[in-house]
Amino acid sequence: MNEMFGAYTVFYREMMLLRKKLPGFFAGSIVGPLLYLMAFGWSLGRNIQLGGVTYLDFVVPGILAVSAMNGSYNATGASLNISRLYHRSFEEFLVAPIGVWSIVLGNVLGGCMRGLFSSAVILIMSYLFGAHLQCNLYFIITLFLTCFLFASLGVVAAMVVNSHEEMANFGTFVILPMSFLCGTFFQLDVLPPIASNIIMLLPLTHSAIALRAIALGAGFPLTSFLIVTVYSIVLFGFGIWVTYRVE
Amino acid sequence: MIEICGLCKSYGQIKALDHLSLTINQGEVFGLLGPNGAGKTTTFRLLTTLARPTAGKVFISGQEVNRHSVKVKKEFGVVPQQLTLDSDLTARENLVLHGMLHKIPGREMSIRIRELLALVELENRSQSPVNEFSGGMKRRLMIARAMMQRPSILFLDEPTAGLDPQVRRQIWDLLRRLNIQGVTVLLTTHYIEEAEQICSRVGILNQGKLIALGTPDELKAKVGKVVVEVPNQCGTEYRVFENREAAARYIAELDRDALVRESSLEDVFIELTGRKVGE
């Protein structure tokens, strides 16, 4: 119970900081997806059919997956990296009488909130653009798991790298390629088998597949859902381990 | 009581701390004095679980210190050298978050925040964002934050580094008041005056090793009570004497002016290492 309160305190701090910067965060979280929606959805989406649906309906779950990933990864990765290496405020948690897993859980849940907030903004915008998507409980759970997974990855990256430059490189070499390659904007079967097989190993691919299947009413994508769940658990555990070892 | 047993910390081939063994008694103001790179901050980080030792152990009130030791962490407050406050939050919000981390109940928390902001003379700035504070105000707020949970021990790493002399004295007064209230204080410093003014006992660190330990008076008595500084072509020559009469006899034989003063911990350091604390 003590530990849960510790995690809640870390989460509460994240929410306090979010509240202080809400207008900036809101503006920052809509620019990218708005451009995606305009470029891929508005201009192309009404005229192209993909997999039996309009391109707009096809692409919005992909944009949501990307946005959930970026929102939650940046929330923990950038914020923790700066607070660990620059402000050093992360040390306030390390010396507090709470377990390491509370610190990680609180930060990851804070990252999830930011990721979900960004996703909600896009979801509302996509309806305004004329998308037809099912947003049921399974969809929300999958979106939350996607946020949890990438917020955990953000913790791992922030604890492992030792400079802001390395953190930026991690984003460039890991996060950015996933944004474009993981079946977010196109169907993977157009790629050569070897490329699509490699991409199928990446977690965002399964987030996009699962979100798209649920949103378009194509049944519950159990395999992709389980893969996202396993990735989330493994990365969260790894996040605890690297946080315990960080100095 | 803090017991440090054979504490070592290496970064690759570099030994930042080399078999430090030390006992700090309850109610002391203990200073770890030394130049940059002596191992002071390393010791601070090891004592507060921010770093893991390569070898050796630390015990606080008989319990071993490590990052998982939640019970031990309740015993001490920590004031790092960097300003680790959330600068976007207000002074009060920073204290509330710290209080929550230590599970201080709401009503007690409000009382405690009022008490501590009064103690550090920031009661009128409780709703101001920390990024509007001066360096001295931030440092005082950090001390208040570290005292939220009523710890029996306060660890401070270079608590007055970069502060002007007036603010430095405010911090010293604050630490004295806390010590009178029963708090054991362990601080690191490279300011000789700080160690002499507020520390009841001092350990001198050099290149990761403890080279002297005692009260400031004991340490100074080891080198002599009176110092004569004689300028020469190469810099300044220091001579230490047991009393003023011996110093006067020496000066009478000189063919130039010399400065006579009481010995300080700096002289102890020079005597032990052959260099000044700041070098």
> Largest interface, by Cβ-Cβ below 8 angstroms: which chains and how many residues each?
A-B, 26 and 29 residues
Poorly predicted runs of 5 or more residues of chain A? none
The biggest sheet of chain B amounts to: 6 strands, mixed
* Topology, number of strands of chain B: 13
General form of chain A: globular
Encode the helix/strand succession of chain A as letters: HHEEHHHHHHHH
The gist of it:
Helix content of chain A is about 75%, strand content about 0%. Chain A has about 250 residues and is mainly alpha-helical. Chain A has a two-stranded antiparallel sheet.
Note down, in words, how this protein is organized.
The complex is a heterodimer of chains A (247) and B (279). Chain A has ten helices and two strands, in the order ααββαααααααα. With 247 residues, chain A is mainly α. In chain A, a hairpin with a 2-residue loop joins strand 1 and strand 2 (53-54). Chain B is globular. In chain B, strands 6-7-8-3-9-10 form a six-stranded mixed beta sheet, sandwiched between helices. Chain B has a four-stranded antiparallel beta sheet with strand order 2-1-4-5, covered by helices on one side. In chain B, helix 3 (91-101) runs parallel beside helix 5 (135-146) and helix 8 crosses helix 10. In chain B, a hairpin with a 2-residue loop joins strand 9 and strand 10. Chain B has ten helices and 13 strands. The A-B interface holds A 2, 5-6, 9, 12-13, 16-17, 20-21, 87-89, 91-100, 244-245, 247 and B 45, 48-52, 67-68, 70-71, 73-74, 78, 80, 82-89, 93, 97-98, 100-103.
